[in-house]
Write a structure and sequence with these properties.
By secondary structure, this protein is an alpha+beta fold. It has two domains: 4-51 and 156-288, no CATH class; 57-128, no CATH class. It has helices at residues 8-11, 19-55, 70-82, 95-106, 132-141, 152-194, 196-204, 209-246, 268-288; strands at 57-63, 87-92, 118-124, 145-149. It is rod-shaped and about 105 Å long. Mean pLDDT is 78; it is low at 1-9.
Amino acid sequence: MKMPFERQAGLLPRDAAGETWLAAVIAVLCFMACLAAVGAVAADRAAHGWARQLRAEATVQVRPRVGETGPTAAARAAETLAGVDGVSEAVALDRKAAEDLLRPWMGEAVLADLPLPFLVTVRLDPDAPASAVTLSRALAQAGLDADVDDHALWRGEVERSAALITALAVAGFVLTALAAASAIVYATRAGLKAQAPVIETLSLSGAGDRAIAWLFQRRFGLLAAGAGAAGAIAAAVLIGALAALGGEGGVSPALPLVWSDLLILSPCPLIAATVALVAAGFAVTAALGGRAPRR
């Protein structure tokens, strides 16, 4: 035979504390949290991809000596660097290639009369890349006057930016979770106040504080799980659409979304339900704290 406090549907009528609006708020918060989580992963992926590309390449600027042409010096530097351990490939850029690099920034008009540096692009071995010191030493031993740029400065800036973006996204996720918990606490307190006569009747009938608290915890846990699932599905639809529109390269180089990012959204209902259970538990405990405890 079931006790009166086990008949949860009758004891806590639906929407007694504005649960429809609470579910909408939780769904929106979960939607924002999902976007923040996926954004953090995508930004981190982009930044580490850029850093990996910078780490895998180096640029050498060659200054020809007296009696030597620039293209000849660059070709000699490329030949020297190609034989260095940790270098996969070294290619001297001709003037046309250098102009192609500068054209988007400087336009077509001034390129013909502009003196351009003589450059060598070096592709490093990803497993054991040669250091800038090693490359500089090899060039000096070959009698070449050149500067080596291993992109360390740019790589550090990219990695610091990635760490900042990830931290901001994580902070946004935590804030949305706290906002959801606050909304649940408020709604639970309102539900307790609205159901005060029922709670008193349950108490007089022998229901303990734990049983009463579990009614509200279960109610809001299930509500948050459903709302979290709705928010995650909405986020998945948006992210899937952006990934489909972006193709293999993602929606943009700064936000390379992939289909596997959708897996990040799967824990959202469980996390929302857990937050709801904990928040509702604290709210119920605080609300019933002044009464004589029952087991």
